[in-house]
Structure formats: structure tokens, C-alpha cells
């Protein structure tokens, strides 16, 4: 693991979302970005590459960073632990992993069969080439997680978006230039857990979705009865989230859509004394906030979690961290979470999120594809 010094006393901050800098998309575009408008219909849209963003400004990281408040050592016993915990996404009506192998994955997203690069798919493909060749969309170009490329549509030209539904929540799938499609299905494991917590609480829980990307998790939580605050540094991602809200016919649900640097936002919430019952946080390994703030996962994660602990309510139901595309063990974020939650009791559960192959019909369980690391604190 290439670990940088965490330098918690001078942790800087930020927050583009995605699995890289912009998006989820990744994540999270990678979960996160900054263009102001989507691509025209019929063309794949996307967010600017983190690599490109890093080259745009001659200012140093120190100039663009905002110091976070210092971290004081926690006292008390560390929470109990469950490791490793493997959370699995199985085939659903709206999504399933058909096959994977040879550095690619074949997925069913609603009506479309999609091929994308997948470095974790080290094994040979199980299904014949004829099945893969019937894909509706294939991502080509840079196979790096943050690399830009383009979509090829072998059968017929497709628009930028298409209707999707997961956990009874409608939203738009989306072809982006970072190979992401507007949703990360492995997160269904966390969303189902969150939905159950909200439904069983007997009161409206306050949920903070930090680095919220296209808002599917926020919509799931709000539809279950939560009051949601959704934060992402990308104006484009916030725009997509509002489109998803309209698609879900959820305009009247209590969701605050906030375009802001994640660290700046939670620091203000700490000063205000704001509290949340569930916090979902899905930071990129690198990103920039709306004003050029710099986020580096290994430098800033400890400070971010420390602040998140401070804004958890006394009767909180959980703090969830997901980490993509980093050279680290889940044990690294597991131990960080346990240190962060010293003296709070409860339990820290850490491991990996996986997606199980389901074959063409989604009913033939196959191999498990690892997608990300996670750590989750729960009160008991």
C-alpha cells in the first residue's frame, strides 16, 4: 500500500465525487466532477478526468487546500469488530452481473446489456463470445478507472440516458465518458441496510449522503421516510440527482441538494451542532471541490471520519465508509474506523462489497466480483 502521511493536524479537504475525482461514481466521474451540463441526447456524457483537472491549475495543492481542524486522540475502548464481512449484491429485477472475465464485465442494466472494463476479473469468461457480442453498449478507450473513453453501440444508437429502477426507486441510467452509468449497484447492500434502519426506526431519521453523486441513495432513504441531506461538489452531479428526483416522482420528499466541498460542509455542520442518524460517505481517492479545493484520500480521510463522528446523533444508527480504487487493505480503513469510534461502543464491520454473477437470466449463481472496500460502524 502506497500510504502517504496522514498529517491529521493539517488535513486539507475537499470533495469531488466519483471513483476518481469526479464522479461514483464513482462513483463515485468518477464519482465526481464539474461540467455544468450533460452531453446532448444520443451522445455519451461524462465529467472531466481527475488527471486533466489536476493539470488545469498551476496553483499548488497547499494553496488550493483548506485546513481541517486538528484531530485529538480518542479515549475509551475500541468498538467490537466483525472482520471480514462480505456484503453481496445478488441479481435483482433492475440489475444483474451476467458474466465477467479477461478484464471485462457483462452487466444487465434495465433493458440494456453493457460491457465495461473490470481489472478485478482475472479469470476467463464463462459464457461464449456470442453472448458478449450481443451487448447493446460497449465502453472503449482508456481502461484506467479514471480514464476517458467512449461508448460503442453495436446494435443501434442509444441516447445518453435510460429508465432504471432499484429498490422500488426510479432513476436514470447514464452513459458517461468515464465508463460509469450513474449508479453503483454494489451499493445496494448498504442501501438495503439503510432502508431497513429507516423503516424500523419509528421516527424520521436524518441521513447525510456525503459525496452523493447522482442521488439514488438519497432517493431510497427519502422514500423510506428519512430526511436527507445530499452533498456533492459537482454541479453536474447535483443536476443529474434532481433529474432522478423528477424521474422518481419524489419532488415533495424532504431532500436538501447541496453543491459544496464535502469537508467544508461537515466542518460547518460541526460548528452549528447539526446531527445525523446515518452518514453515508463514499469519497474518491482524489478530487477537487467547486472552488479548486484538493482532496487526497490518504491525507484527509482520518479528519473526515473524525468530523463525521462529531455530527452523529446520540441515537445514531450508523456511519458507512466505502473506498474504491485504492491500494489498501480493508483492514486499513477498519482500524481507522475503530480508532475514530473509540468510546462510542457499538461494532465496526469491515470487508468488501461484491457482486455475484447470475448468468443470462440472473438465476445461475456464479463467481463473485469484488468491487470495493467498506467499513461500517453500527451502535450494536
Automatic annotation (TrEMBL):
Listed GO MF terms: methyltransferase activity
One Pfam family recorded for the sequence: Cons_hypoth95
Location of the region described as Disordered in the Swiss-Prot/TrEMBL record: 1-83
Alphabetical list of Gene3D superfamilies matching this protein: Golgi alpha-mannosidase II, Vaccinia Virus protein VP39
Biased composition (Low complexity): 35-54
UniProt xrefs under PANTHER family: SAM-DEPENDENT METHYLTRANSFERASE (PTHR43042:SF2)
Name under which the protein is recorded: Uncharacterized protein
Highest classification ranks of the organism: Bacteria, Pseudomonadati, Pseudomonadota, Alphaproteobacteria, Hyphomicrobiales
Amino acid at each position: 500500500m502506497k500510504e502517504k502521511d496522514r498529517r491529521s493536524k493539517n488535513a486539507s479537504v475537499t470533495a469531488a465525487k466519483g471513483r476518481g475525482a469526479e464522479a461514483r461514481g464513482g462513483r463515485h466521474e468518477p464519482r465526481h466532477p464539474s461540467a455544468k451540463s450533460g452531453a446532448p441526447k444520443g451522445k455519451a456524457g461524462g465529467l472531466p478526468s481527475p488527471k486533466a483537472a489536476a493539470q488545469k491549475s498551476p496553483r499548488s495543492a497547499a494553496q488550493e487546500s483548506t485546513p481541517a481542524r486538528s484531530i485529538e486522540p480518542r479515549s475509551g475502548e475500541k468498538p467490537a469488530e466483525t472482520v471480514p464481512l462480505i456484503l453481496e449484491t445478488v441479481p435483482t429485477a433492475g440489475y444483474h452481473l451476467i458474466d465477467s472475465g479477461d478484464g471485462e464485465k457483462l452487466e444487465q442494466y434495465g433493458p440494456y446489456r453493457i460491457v465495461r472494463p473490470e481489472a478485478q476479473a482475472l479469470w476467463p469468461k464463462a459464457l461464449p463470445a456470442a453472448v458478449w457480442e450481443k451487448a447493446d453498449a460497449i465502453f472503449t478507450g482508456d481502461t484506467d478507472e479514471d480514464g476517458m473513453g467512449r461508448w460503442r453501440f453495436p446494435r443501434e444508437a442509444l441516447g445518453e440516458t435510460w429508465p432504471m429502477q432499484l429498490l422500488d426507486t426510479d432513476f436514470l441510467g447514464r452513459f458517461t465518458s468515464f465508463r460509469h452509468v450513474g449508479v453503483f449497484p454494489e451499493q445496494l447492500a448498504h442501501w438495503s441496510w439503510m432502508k431497513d434502519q429507516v423503516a424500523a426506526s419509528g421516527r424520521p431519521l436524518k441521513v447525510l449522503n456525503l459525496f452523493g453523486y447522482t442521488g439514488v441513495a438519497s432517493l431510497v432513504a427519502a422514500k423510506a421516510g428519512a430526511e436527507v441531506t445530499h452533498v456533492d461538489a459537482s454541479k453536474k452531479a447535483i443536476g443529474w440527482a434532481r433529474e432522478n428526483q423528477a424521474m422518481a416522482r419524489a419532488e415533495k420528499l424532504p431532500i436538501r441538494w447541496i453543491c459544496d466541498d464535502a469537508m467544508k460542509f461537515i466542518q460547518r455542520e460541526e460548528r452549528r451542532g447539526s446531527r445525523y442518524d446515518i452518514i453515508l460517505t463514499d469519497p474518491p481517492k482524489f478530487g477537487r471541490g467547486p472552488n479548486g479545493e484538493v482532496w487526497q484520500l490518504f491525507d484527509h480521510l482520518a479528519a473526515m471520519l473524525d468530523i463525521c463522528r462529531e455530527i452523529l446523533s446520540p441515537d445514531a444508527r450508523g456511519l458507512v465508509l466505502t473506498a474504491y480504487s485504492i491500494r489498501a487493505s480493508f483492514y486499513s480503513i477498519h482500524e481507522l474506523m475503530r480508532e475514530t469510534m473509540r468510546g462510542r461502543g457499538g461494532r465496526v464491520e469491515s470487508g468488501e462489497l461484491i457482486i455475484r454473477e447470475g448468468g443470462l437470466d440472473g438465476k445461475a449463481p456464479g463467481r463473485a466480483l469484488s468491487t470495493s472496500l467498506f467499513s461500517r460502524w453500527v451502535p450494536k
